[in-house]
Amino acid sequence: MDTFLYQASIYLAAAVIAVPIAARLGLGSVLGYLAAGILIGPVFGLVGSETQDLQHFAEFGVVMMLFLIGLELEPRALWAMRHKLLGLGGLQILFSTLALMGAAMVAGQTWQVSLAIGLALSLSSTAIVLQTLSEKGLMQTGGGRASFSVLLTQDIAVIPILAFLPLLATGLGPQIGNDGSIRRGEEAAHGGGHGSLSLVEGMPGWAVTLITIGAIAFIILAGIYLTRPLFRFIHASNLREMYTALALLIVVGISFLMTLVGLSPALGAFLAGVVLANSEFRHELESDLNPFKGLLLGLFFITVGAGINYRLFLASPGDLIGLALLVIVAKGLVLFFVGRAFGLRKRAHWLFTLSLAQAGEFGFVLLAFSRQLNVIPAALSEKLLLIIALSMLITPLLFILYDLLSKRVTDPRTADEEPDKIDEQGPVIIAGIGRFGQIVNRLVRASGFKTVLLDNDMEAVQLMRRFGVKSFLGDPTRPELLKAAGIAKARILVVALDDPENTVKLVEYVRRNYPDIHIIARAYDRHHVFELYQAGANDIVREMFDSSLRAGRYVLERIGLSEYEAAQAEQTFYAHDRLTIRELAKHWIPGKPASENPAYIKRARELEKDLETALLELAEQKDHKSS
Question: What is the C-alpha to C-alpha distance for residues 339 and 149, in angstroms, rounded to an integer?
Fold first, then answer.
């Protein structure tokens, strides 16, 4: 018991310390877990041989992750994305696997080992790439959407790959006995499976096939017809923990059933997730399982890091780093040509190529599974683990390279399409016609005023034209486009761009060159407000402020205030917030987080007390009138 508590403390402490540091540095949680494992294993030697046993338990986190991925993938959504999934994603996996397989065979490996290596290294890091794309605001760009499609394909592809790998096993794959029965794994090698749990042990091939199909059919039918009565039964108990127990039972039970019929637990979990994707209990399942999935996956990555053979790395660091770079270059070339074939250009093309060039966390899973099946020798598996980890550690450098390249090329949405010739001018120019810009445009036009709409998103421009609203394709930050739109004669410029950096850039340029125009700008958050304030915007609207304020007023109305009293509170808050923005702008320092600015924090606290005082005075006035 003491040993268990000691080991648990070491693993948890390593995760709690290393992962937040890695996240703060922008390296992602996966690299944080790997670093934690390396520190407690190879560096300080705080954990030992129990790591491998713990890794088998932690692999259940992968099963949970695939179940949750299945919950996110409604069959209709999968069908709608079929072209990108099968095209971009499918070709990337195919050609990357073949390229890396060929390299392994040139190095002297058998075709079975080479194919397993190619499959393991062809998958990119979902955790690192998605987190980095979100942090940099690149998810909605052409390259970001293409990268997401490939990652989604890779996540789905893990299922058939896990099912396929046992076929590459040398000596431990399914074998046919003299009586026509199928014997699996260690049974075939040692003459039987004494005490092993299996529904297909010793059965003829046709019976194994029927039982396997029956198990899959049972999962689908149970997901459709049994989950609703089960959840109602649990709901009647009024015990919150029973929901968690049921969620765990679903995943564990399905995994056990898949094991009984000789299939991958991950396959059954993913299938069940897809079946339940349209269920009303989907969000309940997600919220119950996410903490377990996160901890178990984190534990899995820690054990991978702890199990890395540092002596092997120190023996030939140059070779291993070179092999990691070779993997990145090989995958990068495949991604470059696949992206070009599917019409990606310029920034989107480079983002797609560089963001997915590393190997990923699923490679650890596939290597561990391949090693367990004796597909890949243990010594080679350790070397491959190091190569994957090194390629993931290089990923932040690839995004830095993308940032440098993106400054040298034009935006892909304007590179593929020539800007429209602007033949209209008006008193109001709206730059950006997303949800925000569309509402502004509808209100202004419906009130009888002419607007000129600009956007560099071809899809948005075409959508507006379908509804009979004339708009022009082009980058609103380009001076010649603004000039053609009549910026010199316009009275108002509305900046409604999605990119905060481009918003500030446009406001600065217009204020510097056209000082008399009134600029109304959309801000992402309070710090963006300060940037726009310094850039010269006249009116600044935070994206969520007005809608949040209105929601707060509804809360007050339903909790006991009259409509008039709630409206007064809303107006008081609104006026105070405008004052707060002006006051805090005096203390705001560009590039310095507010949490590290004592003067900013002090003034914010003073202003918050003033707000509380103002609202309390309103309440006292209400009580005084009622008395």
Answer: 12
